[in-house]
């Protein structure tokens, strides 16, 4: 059985326990020190108080080094965690007590530990709070961070090295805008060294320091900005390179549509191919509850995470019949209001069902998806359109998608979209900037609506991660894998052979358009997508040419009849074996079709078609 999780009441205790742990550490240090007057032990607020504190502590540092170190680290980390101003005095104190080398090491360690503690505290409490107050603005900043994911370390180093933003703000904001912790920590460890060196060096000559403004003269600030510019330069230069070479990674994020008509093959019966991720090594994960809270849904009682289909069926999941739903035109204001109603509804449900997965065949540029549902049937159907992902992969993703399935929400919710909206069984609404898809009523069972919405939502993520969305079916024949880029009815005409071997240029040409019963239809995608079709075709051309991959055109019509089922599979087997059927076609009909293709693609794409593309 999957994990049953209750509301994380221990998280509140954990937050209070952080402060208690620091307090206990300081009390322990105090009790281990010799009897004396410790009235001087207080956080310094100016240089005069710091000099007094330093004068007293110098007497203890040599004899009680360990206690002083523990007390220093506890105070520094506590101040960083709870954003108490005055850590610059602690950095000066380190230089005065421990010298330059040990002082820099101590400051960097304590500052990094305190920054990490603040990071996780903000992630646990601050992120859900900010999302509940400003979901649109938060989604905007999260997407800006996601766009710079590959060079994020360079940007973080720039912020850490230069006095552009306060370190406290960086510690607090980083988890809220989805900066990964490993990047945050590495940038902190490296980026704090220059500033720590300056303050520790000044602390060695603390008696000569008259003002904090003496710490950073014009030369020091200029040097810090120079180091920051050097750290961010690779990110600025790498941006153009990534835009110039989109084809190199285009196939790493291909969609894998399965075929409903090719049942004899080893093809998944759903959209993207999904394998359930199920973890039994942890009975309770409070992190999941807080992650869901970060998307606006508070767990009321229980949440079931990544149940197997059989387990979902035990709690009432069923496969519904045909459902008619729709995707209305929704403004940002309407979507924001609808999202609040849906998250409020889900927060009132006793048992929630959460399923995680991904869209796209490559872990390098796929789109992670989390389904939050009030219905096991919705969770079961939606989870089947996702790829399997490693444990906790979604928590490390900078811009995961969220699907809210509110099957039991009141039908009156549709009034948010306007009085003219009529959807008896349900409706879907998506917002690309919020990375969210809302499914009300039985809209979760409308596979076409779900597929089209996910296609539109994931395209910007793929583009930001250096890839291009390429729809297709994935078929397996023994040791061979076939990627079919269009439904079989896209190419159906008696004018060409059943199977034709294509050059890379011909494959890209036919990828742009199919010919079905006298009319041209899009072969690259049926769903709305911001991806440029010519760019997709160029990516296909480059991939086929560079990797020397064979390409075939499968015609699903012969002698006026459509080829389906086992007969269609035989065409694949013939193509893979190299024994293509010897079927003659009339040159006149081929010439006419060629002219129609040229006329159609010229009118649609003009002079943008590369010269290598041909019929």
From TrEMBL:
Q: What is the lineage of its organism?
A: Eukaryota, Viridiplantae, Streptophyta, Embryophyta, Tracheophyta
* Domain named VTT: residues: 84-203
Topology relative to the membrane: Multi-pass membrane protein
Q: Which GO terms describe its biological process?
A: autophagosome assembly; gluconeogenesis
Fetch the Pfam families from UniProt. Answer: VTT_dom
Q: Which organism is it from?
A: Eragrostis curvula
Q: Where is the protein situated, by its record's location annotation?
A: Membrane
Q: Which UniProt key words apply to this protein?
A: Lyase, Membrane, Nucleotide-binding, Transmembrane, Transmembrane helix
Per the record, the domain of life is Eukaryota
What GO molecular function annotation could you give as one example from this UniProt entry? purine nucleotide binding
Its GO CC terms?
membrane
User: InterPro entries annotated for this entry?
Assistant: PEP_carboxykinase_C, PEP_carboxykinase_N, TM41A/B, VTT_dom
Residue ranges spanning the membrane: these are 12-33, 69-98, 104-122, 179-200, 221-238
What is the protein's given name? VTT domain-containing protein
**Does the keyword field hold Metal-binding?**
no
